[in-house]
Amino acid sequence: MTKIQNIGVLTSGGDSPGMNACIRAIVRQGLSSGLSVFGIYDGFNGMIDNHIKKLVYGDVSNIIQRGGTILGTARSERFLDAAFRKVAFENLKDNDIDGVIVLGGDGSFKGAKVFFEEYNLPFIGVPCTIDNDINGTEYTIGFDTALNNAISAIDKIKDTASAHHRIFLVEVMGNNSGLIALNTALTTGSEDVFIPEIEENFAQFETKIQRAISANKSSIIIVSEGDEIGGARELFNYLKTKNLHQKIRVTVLGHIQRGGAPTFLDRKMATEFGVMAINQFVKNNYNRTLGLKNGKIYTYDFESVKGGESVDFQELLNTIHSLSLY
Description:
alpha/beta; 10 helices; four-stranded parallel sheet; single chain
């Protein structure tokens, strides 16, 4: 195998807190290992537009605590076109880049894998998404910060809900995964949660809402944006048809969940993932994705993992229901 000397790093898809901590670890571990590291800006678009810069030690100073990504990110439609991928490869060759680390989700990894199959360009994938929905890993960078952001916001909403004896439908992010919603509901004392993995019993839910209204009690209901009903506003509209909407308010947390300083866990995991990514190139072990399994980082072919890590959604939902007052 040809020894890799110059590594590119990019962030792709949605940003997630901890990406900067991972970039910092990649650059500094790379330099410590005698490699050169190049930042590729705005995801795969940066390859196509030749927006590439060699990074040095000082470029990643004072970023470990910052959310977002200093490299910028994007979902590149152009990269789906083989002609643009050829342009991207030529730009990487012009910069003498012979391996790429991709920080993102499964869509980003699939793009990197196609690129390898076409041009034999080695890559390592680092799981970064607040949704924690990548098959084969128990944890993705950004998940813990998103949870803490949601919990902090809901704690504040509960003050108003209690003061006015209101019911709040709070929508959280998560794409098609209910992990943010489920864990947020569990740790904020919410009365119920709507997630895409489990179909809600609307008859029981309506009874619960009616009891809360009759008792003049405040309640928090968490709704995953990917739930089959469509989100918090859609749930409100449903309750309106049942004449159960008078004391209900809707809050959509939105992108506030993505922002802010990463938590301890996200900084730690991002740093360890970044170091591991560089070490894989040093060992000539690439075209793999990093993941966390049983508390340890390992490498795997993400396409070979069909079902992801096991999460007992029903058990957690049962716990939330059993602790509900209504």
